[in-house]
Design a protein that fits this description.
8 helices, 4-stranded mixed β-sheet, 5-stranded antiparallel β-sheet, 22% helix, 16% strand, 313 residues
């Protein structure tokens, strides 16, 4: 039989494995290792700890329904992204209860935002390329918000290409989207969140072969298309480039220089950012770093502008 000192050492070591300090454990009983508070350190304490051995369950936000806790390697193809998703502690794939929108977790991380190396199509406002760190994970719609999802919440469909429930909703202004977000608890992604999610750990102008990943001028037939009919990026997100431009939260303005964390754009402005290109865009528009903008008022949006919903866990 092991001595009490050896047993105490085992319990304390296991407690430390689970992130419990001996002082926090001691507060529950008379001494370190007294997990159940019965003033005795014995096999019962060890059994409690060993019974919980392994990965802690992923956290599912109160506003969501769990679809899949751990990232599927066939979908999240980058091993570092999978590890970061698991390390965040949040469930990977959920459904937002208020809107019925399927969302995927985007883990925090660091990336180079702006003009991709060697991209000859970059415009002046895509520079300087700069290091950005997003310190918090967030959820982002697996697809652009569809006509059906918009109509379910708002009771009407403003789209030009009406009658295509699985196509992205368009002709929605930034201001009008705020009404949708107020009704659902969703939000628009910041420009930095959008580009980080679009790139999905890639550093090139596009995350795949153009015809495989995007609806644009050369293959769209002059219309939007049902979401998720092209290949996704390495986070499992569809149509982040092509189909419709996607509104972002930020006012449009020049990039900050140097290393920044959690940028949210200028404090004020006259136009709001859009990202990702659209069904009538030429190749130079359909790039991860391409920026566009429009006034946020209800008269500014066109049949090539929609959005993707985000939410904070």
């Amino acid at each position: 039989m092991k001595s009490p000192n050896i047993l105490l050492s085992i319990v304390a070591a296991v407690a430390m494995t689970f992130g419990l300090s001996t002082s926090s454990v001691q507060g529950q009983g008379s001494c370190a290792g007294d997990v159940n508070g019965d003033h005795v350190v014995d096999g019962a304490d060890l059994a409690i700890l060993l019974g919980n051995w392994g990965q802690c369950p992923a956290v599912v936000p109160a506003w969501a329904t769990l679809l899949e806790a751990a990232p599927d390697p066939a979908v999240v193809t980058d091993a570092n992204l999978r590890a970061a998703i698991v390390a965040s502690g949040f469930a990977w794939r959920i459904r937002d209860n208020s809107s019925n929108i399927e969302m995927l977790l985007v883990p925090g991380g660091t990336f180079m935002m702006g003009c991709s190396p060697g991209d000859a199509d970059c415009l002046a406002d895509e520079s300087p390329a700069h290091q950005v760190t997003l310190t918090n994970a967030f959820y982002l719609g697996k697809t652009e918000v569809t006509q059906a999802q918009w109509q379910s919440t708002m009771g009407s469909n403003p789209s030009y290409f009406v009658g295509q429930p699985n196509n992205p909703v368009e002709q929605v202004s930034w201001n009008t989207i705020q009404n949708f977000n107020s009704a659902t608890g969703l939000r628009l992604p910041t420009e930095a969140e959008w580009e980080y999610a679009c790139r999905a750990a890639t550093t090139t102008a596009r995350y795949g072969v153009m015809n495989d990943i995007a609806w644009y001028l050369s293959n769209s037939g002059s219309t939007t298309h049902a979401v998720a009919t092209k290949l996704p990026n390495a986070l499992g997100l569809y149509d982040t480039i092509g189909n419709v431009w996607e509104w972002c939260q930020d006012w449009y303005g020049p990039y900050l220089t140097g290393i920044v964390s959690n940028p949210t754009g200028p404090a004020t402005g006259s136009v709001r950012l859009e990202r990702g290109g659209c069904w009538r865009g030429t190749l130079d528009h359909i790039r991860a770093s391409r920026r566009d903008y429009d006034p946020p008022d209800s008269d500014s949006s066109g049949n090539n502008v929609g959005f993707r919903a985000a939410r904070t866990p």
